[in-house]
Write a structure and sequence with these properties.
The protein is α/β, with parallel strands linked by helices. It has a seven-stranded parallel sheet, with helices on both faces. The model has no long low-confidence stretch (mean pLDDT 96). 43% of the residues are buried. It is built from seven helices and seven strands, in the order βαβαβαβαβαβααβ. Helix 1 links the parallel strand 1 and strand 2. It has a single domain, classed as Rossmann fold, CATH 3.40.50. The structure holds nicotinamide-adenine-dinucleotide. Nicotinamide-adenine-dinucleotide binds next to helix 1 and helix 4. The site of nicotinamide-adenine-dinucleotide has 28 residues, from helix 1 and helix 4.
Amino acid sequence: MEISLRNQVAIVTGASSGIGTGIAKSLASSGATVIVNHSSERSLNDAKTIVREIIDAGGKGITYQCDVSKEDQVVKMFQDVVAEFGTVDILINNAGIQKDAKFTEMTLDQWNAVIGVNLTGQFLCAREAIKEFLRRGIDPSRSVACGKIIHVSSVHEVIPWAGHANYAASKGAIRMLMQTLAQEYGADKIRVNSICPGAIQTPINTNAWNTQEAMNSLLALIPYNRIGQPQDIGNLAVFLASDASDYITGASIFIDGGMTTFES
Ligand code: NAD
């Protein structure tokens, strides 16, 4: 089966760096029109560069600034995208942050910041996406899903992570959000899944593996013996967004070089 996302409109949150960029470029190269969401003025130049690279490669995309933890901004983003492109077919709920602290030293601000982006942000975007999928309805000429949501979760939705309670709690909650939405909207032909990355080379963990010793300890946890790249996640996102995965919903797909095999 040919995998094509032609005529599909995709919003990728937090797409101005890392995994979001990898996903945005992969979706665009498969034919989707991609909204490269970024959070603030500071990330505008990065987002513009990515859109330029997408267009230079023959794809379609625009930048869109929106803080996904802010309800009014998320509602406006979906309204603006529907006004410009007619609809939204794919939501990639990718934006995420870390504010690490030993639990007894974790401030309420650190807790709220991570839950606000990683969980509330995914709730707000999923809600607006599903409203749009329902407004547009099922295409009677096609038997496949009319809307697809892909949450970017983490292996830490099932593996506890000392020193990162806020982050692990946000990812564990995404699992239940994703499964509940898959149940609630399956009959409306909306598919909802999660990608659960292991260790992927991106800015979020620049400082985590900056010594050979740290890298060796990490590689010891990865049977496939390499760090993942944003492109690895992009490839999976294209599959999950495409008709080739039409019977997959409610699934957390681990993409981690085998890291989670140590958990079973
Ligand atoms: P990253 O820091 O490069 O990307 C996160 C992106 O989210 C950034 O572009 C940032 O600007 C954006 N963002 C932050 N707050 C935002 C907000 N309020 N509104 C909109 N955008 C916002 O890191 P990454 O590794 O690419 O992370 C992407 C996702 O992958 C995150 O959800 C992260 O938890 C998840 N993840 C990453 C890894 C890894 O090893 N890199 C592993 C598992 C899961």
